[in-house]
Design a protein that fits this description.
This protein has 13 helices and 13 strands. It has two domains: about 260 residues, Type I PLP-dependent aspartate aminotransferase-like (Major domain) (Aspartate Aminotransferase, domain 2), CATH 3.40.640.10; about 120 residues, Alpha-Beta Complex (Aspartate Aminotransferase, domain 1). Helix content is about 40%, strand content about 15%. The strands form four sheets. Strands 2-10-9-8-5-3-4 form a seven-stranded mixed beta sheet, sandwiched between helices. The chain is α/β, with parallel strands linked by helices. Helix 4 links the parallel strand 3 and strand 4. The structure holds pyridoxal-5'-phosphate (PLP). Pyridoxal-5'-phosphate binds next to helix 3.
Length: about 425
Amino acid sequence: MTNLFGDLNPPPRILMGPGPVGIDPRVLRAMSMPMLGQFDPAFTAYMNETMELLRQLYQTRNKWSFLIDGTARAGVEAILVSVVSPGDKVLVPSFGRFGFLLAEIVKRCGGEAIVLEREWGTVFTPDEIEAAIRKHNPRVLAVVHGDTSTTMAQPLAQIGDICRRHDALLYTDATASLGGMNVAIDAWKVDAASSGLQKCLSGPPGSSPITFNERVAEAVRRRRHVEGGIRPAGFVEGDGPIISSNYFDLGMLMDYWSEMRLNHHTEATSMLYAAREAVRIVLAEGLEHCFARHRLASDALTAGLVAMGLKLFGDQRHKMPNVTGVYIPDGVNGDAVRGIMLNDFGIEIGTSFGPLHGRIWRIGTMGYVCRKENVLICLGALEAALRQCGFGARAGAGVDAALAVYRKADMPAVRSAAS
Ligand SMILES: Cc1ncc(COP(=O)(O)O)c(C=O)c1O
């Protein structure tokens, strides 16, 4: 029954799906801070600090590291619409749902998307990517880093060099990986990347941290345009085709996020507070510790699932540490298990898309939720739900196996910025 004027009082949940995840209370606190005017020096200082925090998070010296207002796909779209001109060839090695999203956006930008497909649960070798670049000679290679739909992470360490050799720009969607595993933008020679707050950064959906280097900035400047009413005297337009989105025009956003402070949109103040706090928390914990915490949770969770008699999905050498795919056993109704997890235990786990829908569950251990107690509670609840649905998991096997992994680890299960 609806109650229009009832209190907003969401049921408490442990969000262990592929995102969004539970928000760190410190991020929620940051979001309740007072509003500031857009050009208040206190606010522009927060903008600059957010840029510096993002550089450290992305392990880059890129000046252009800032926020796009919108969910993660807003960042994807801002980069692609600003970089891909009509007619440009973009190679998209796709190993899951979000590869198709990149290709779709490229097409909407008027680009020619060349999609390389691979069986879900696997990733591309550098040689496969290089061979396709040789064949198609794209201007841009757009690839998802970690695809939550399959739980796989595409290794990128060698792809940047390949792209440079063939004079292609490399863009990656790091929505699911940033903060949970290594994303080394400069070392890997990634030209542009985007992400979201709602996964390993423990924030709400609605802000997309992006970064790009001078190669991308140059390409954007060639398409430079400033809307009437704020155009500075003597402004000269770029000679490339105008970027077909105003909101996502990286050129105008660069003018807004730089010393020029040329007004564009009204920056989403509370989301900027959230992003600044979310990134600050990850950096204060330490990137290496944060990655190790995600790896440990993944090791414990997968050990528990296997001990319960379940089979993991995909090439385990390339599984992201922050989300785990596991086959739904034959004869078990996957949605019924998820229903019991949610309604009896207050735990959300994910289903999947496309060819994997109804075949695997996806269990997230991301950001603030990536903690020993959640891994153990989730395994205990899953075991009980499976038994209710006719699958006889050995009582206690999952939790015991996960506990053993945690006991063996030589790192504290959780060390937050505060401790
Ligand atoms: C790899 C990847 N890219 C893009 C997105 C889209 O993000 P959003 O729903 O925040 O727009 C997601 C969301 O799950 C994702 O996992």
